[in-house]
Amino acid sequence: MTEPAARQAEQIRQLAERLAREAGAIQRERYEGELQIQTKSETIDLVTDVDHACEKLIVDALAELRPDDAILAEEGSGEDTAEANWRWIIDPLDGTTNYAHGYPRFCVSIGVEHNGTGTVGVVYDPMLDEMFSAVRGSGATLNGRSIRVSNEVDMGQAMMATGFAYDVQRSEDDNINHFADMVKAARALRRDGSAALDLCYVAAGRFDGFWELKLHPWDVAAGIVIVEEAGGRTSDFSGAESCRTGRETVVSNTRLHDAMLEILRH
Questions:
Q1: How many CA atoms lie within 13 A of 97 on its CB side?
Q2: How confident is the model at residue 255 (pLDDT cuts 50, 70, 90)?
Q3: Nearest-angstrom CA–CA distance, 77 and 73
Q4: For the chain, which residues make up each domain, given as ranges?
Q5: Which CATH superfamily is domain 3-146 in?
Q6: Which of 70, 193, 228, 229 has its CA 20 to 30 A from that of 119?
Q7: Which of these, 218, 216, 263, 210, lies nearest to 235 by C-alpha position?
Q8: Single pTM value for the model
Q9: Are 180 and 230 in contact (CB under 8 A)?
Q10: Contacts of 230 (CB under 8 A, 6+ apart)
């Protein structure tokens, strides 16, 4: 990035952190309260009035403060204009099913691209008050403290994470085969229901790797920047392509990436 773009990226990070905290405050206040819950693509694919409230807060603020930026938001608000230099990719409440069941693993995820490159990543967990944040070229932080991926090189000593797509009950491409193979290879395997937090946990060295199928850009846009700035590696299952679409996502501490890919190719 040019120096002016780098300065703007830092300003955007600060704004994204503020908006994530404000959306997180809504989630915390409404947690385990009365919710309006609907289904989307599948009966297990939920959306609540809190998702919509958080998205409205963020999108309305951007419309006022950064009206020329493009917005891709999970619940469909905002305008994703192709000619914009800056593009916000927003999951206002990642882990909606957890939230609806009162399970405290959810977050706000805000990724920002500059001319098509992931440049800013912010993920906020309101229950633990943990702010994961990164700007391309400046490293990754957790509540202002620098974070790095783990140094683990032995799959047998690794803790991995994954998730299942919303069509798991009817699709043959269900990740269950990969889950079975990985649980035999790794020390431990977790499935916690928030891909954005899973990516941040790889960045912070809590997980050594993560994979999933059929995610969306809003699930991974922020986390990819945070992982890569923490020294991690991201790819699709081939190992060669970016995972920014979410279609195939593999994230690791770099050292275990090839071993993960070998397992996932079976």
A1: 15
A2: very high
A3: 6
A4: 3-146, 155-264
A5: Fructose-1,6-Bisphosphatase, subunit A, domain 1 (3.30.540.10)
A6: 193
A7: 210
A8: 0.96
A9: no
A10: 134, 139, 140, 147, 148, 149, 202, 203, 204
pLDDT digits (tens, 9 = 90+) for 200-220: 999 999 999 999 999 999 999
Tokens of 251: 């994230």
Please tell me the distance from the alpha carbon of residue 137 to that of residue 6, in angstroms, as a whole number.
9
- Calculate ∠ Cα 132-134-135, nearest 5°: 160
Distance CA 124, CA 21 (A): 7
Look at the domain 155-264 and name its fold. D-Maltodextrin-Binding Protein; domain 2 (3.40.190)
Give dist(CA 232, CA 121) in Å, integer.
14
Task: Kindly list the distances between the CA atom of residue 217 and the CA atoms of 104, 136, 147, in Å, as whole numbers in the listed order.
Answer: 23, 17, 23
Amino acid at 171: S
pLDDT in tens, 159-193: 999 999 777 788 878 899 999 999 999 999 999 99
